[in-house]
């Protein structure tokens, strides 16, 4: 019998990153239980609401969900659903089910995450929801419209092979999503991923939500808190500013890129729904919310050979036009 390999620092770091998947799901479950937005499917992946979360955390997740959904939905509508979605580091995300309910399903929706996340977390929850599917093994699931793949995003050749095995179509307009994923990869690893996507798809948008402005004191405290959990932000140097976020795409083959911090996104959301949401809980620490939102951003980049108008979306992002 082969000797058991010792537990390495990378194993510990990867497990800490995987734990953030559960943290985000539990936060979303609590926020939806309070009425911040509707998600009838998250209960299958976070069985209990859990302990109370601070109002600024709930508002932060609200802005995140609304902002990412805006760009994703705009891309799908521009393509008239003749597209595919790849959710990189998807965790226990429920976007596929929302799109299904809103008649916005793309031709195919792919989710990719660590094999252990897929095997131990996602497939258990998905078994309550999927009927017409084919379970290939403990780390993958495939159906006509929905595919879950266990893969390491740092291994581009294996990722590419698995996506093609499950009928990824490079000729279809494609939107790629990543939420607090690239920041856990080294700059070279994330650049390889962005370059691969830019090379394989001629009409595409990449939507990236993660930290920004990490060089100030608030950002350093965020980094220190994660390090205490053995969770290193290996890509923090690319999260120094909105400019560094945009440059990482422009340097890896993307034609257009733009970015907004989440305080700006929050201010652009429809005010009637923001007013409804803000009535749900009293917020005492308004300055803390502002600091928190200023340290996250949405960056989006595009290639638009088919002239679907995605470049225009990148250049003139106005949430009030779409949400």
Automatic annotation (TrEMBL):
Q: Which family does it belong to?
A: Belongs to the methyltransferase superfamily. LCMT family.
Q: Which GO terms describe its molecular function?
A: protein C-terminal leucine carboxyl O-methyltransferase activity
Describe the reaction catalysed, as an equation: [phosphatase 2A protein]-C-terminal L-leucine + S-adenosyl-L-methionine = [phosphatase 2A protein]-C-terminal L-leucine methyl ester + S-adenosyl-L-homocysteine
Q: What does this protein do?
A: Methylates the carboxyl group of the C-terminal leucine residue of protein phosphatase 2A catalytic subunits to form alpha-leucine ester residues.
Which residues of the sequence carry a binding annotation for S-adenosyl-L-methionine?
64, 89, 152-153, 179
Give the matching InterPro entries: LCMT1 (IPR016651), Ppm1/Ppm2/Tcmp (IPR007213), SAM-dependent_MTases_sf (IPR029063)
Which keywords does UniProt give here? Methyltransferase, S-adenosyl-L-methionine, Transferase
Q: Which Pfam families match?
A: LCM (PF04072)
Cellular component GO terms held in the UniProt record: cytosol
Species the sequence originates in: Takifugu rubripes (Japanese pufferfish)
User: A GO term (biological process) for this protein?
Assistant: regulation of signal transduction
Query: According to the UniProt record, what class of enzyme is this?
Result: transferase
Q: Does the keyword Cell membrane apply?
A: no
Keyword check for S-adenosyl-L-methionine: yes
UniProt-listed Enzyme Commission number(s): 2.1.1.233
Q: Report the protein name in the record.
A: Leucine carboxyl methyltransferase 1
């Amino acid at each position: 019998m082969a000797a058991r390999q010792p537990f390495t620092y990378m194993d510990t770091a990867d497990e800490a990153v995987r734990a953030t998947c559960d943290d985000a799901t539990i936060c979303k479950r609590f926020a939806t239980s309070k009425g911040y937005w509707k998600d009838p499917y998250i209960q299958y992946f976070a069985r209990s609401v859990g302990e109370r979360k601070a109002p600024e955390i709930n508002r932060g997740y609200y802005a995140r969900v609304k902002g990412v959904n805006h760009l994703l939905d705009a891309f799908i509508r521009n393509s008239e659903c003749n597209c595919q979605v790849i959710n990189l580091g998807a965790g226990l995300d429920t976007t596929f089910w929302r799109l299904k309910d809103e008649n916005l399903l793309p031709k195919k929706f792919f989710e990719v995450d660590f094999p252990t996340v897929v095997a131990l977390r996602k497939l258990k929850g998905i078994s309550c929801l999927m009927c017409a599917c084919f379970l290939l093994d403990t780390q993958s699931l495939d159906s006509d419209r929905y595919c879950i793949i266990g893969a390491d995003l740092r291994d581009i050749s294996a990722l590419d092979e698995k996506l093609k095995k499950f009928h990824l179509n490079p000729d279809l307009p494609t939107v790629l999503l990543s939420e607090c994923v690239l920041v856990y990869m080294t700059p070279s690893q994330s650049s390889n991923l962005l370059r691969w996507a830019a090379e394989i798809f001629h009409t595409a948008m990449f939507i990236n939500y993660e930290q920004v402005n990490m060089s100030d004191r608030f950002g350093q405290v965020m980094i220190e808190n994660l390090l205490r959990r053995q969770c290193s932000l290996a890509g923090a140097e690319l999260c120094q500013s909105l400019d560094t976020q945009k440059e990482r795409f422009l340097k890896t083959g993307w034609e257009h890129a733009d970015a907004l911090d989440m305080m700006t996104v929050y201010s652009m959301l429809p005010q009637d729904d923001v007013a409804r949401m803000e009535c749900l809980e009293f917020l005492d620490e308004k300055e803390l919310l502002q600091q928190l939102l200023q340290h996250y951003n949405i960056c989006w980049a595009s290639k638009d050979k088919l002239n679907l108008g995605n470049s225009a979306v990148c250049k003139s992002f106005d949430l009030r036009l779409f949400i």
